[in-house]
Design goal:
The protein is α+β, with helices and mostly antiparallel strands and about 100 residues long. Helix content is about 35%, strand content about 30%. It contains 3 helices and 4 strands, in the order βαββααβ.
Length: about 100
């Protein structure tokens, strides 16, 4: 069953435009990573928050991606745009 992943990120306001350029450059890499089904980016401008809403084949696929971007330094570069580390949550769809 697919896994929904959310990353809640508190933004440094003056770096938002730089962040958008970073995302435009790097989102294709996320979307083409094995196991990634989709990635959506949402902004709450009033509260300086970004939500990355992703769908992956499994939690393990997402954790492999996180390891990959940790090892190559992309995660550190991304976190320079945030006030603190993103909160990552994993969800599975209920059969209701």
């Amino acid at each position: 069953m697919n896994t929904r992943v959310t990353l809640h990120c508190s933004l440094i306001a003056e770096k938002k435009e730089e962040l958008i350029l970073f995302l435009e450059k790097n989102l294709a890499n996320v979307r083409s990573f094995p196991g990634c089904i989709s990635v959506d980016v949402l902004f709450d401008n009033d509260n300086r928050e970004m939500l990355l809403e992703e769908q992956w084949l499994s939690i393990e696929h997402h954790k492999e991606y996180i390891k990959f971007i940790t090892d190559n330094g992309i995660l550190d570069s991304l976190c320079l745009f945030f006030d603190n580390l993103p909160t990552i949550k994993y969800f599975s769809k209920a059969d209701l």
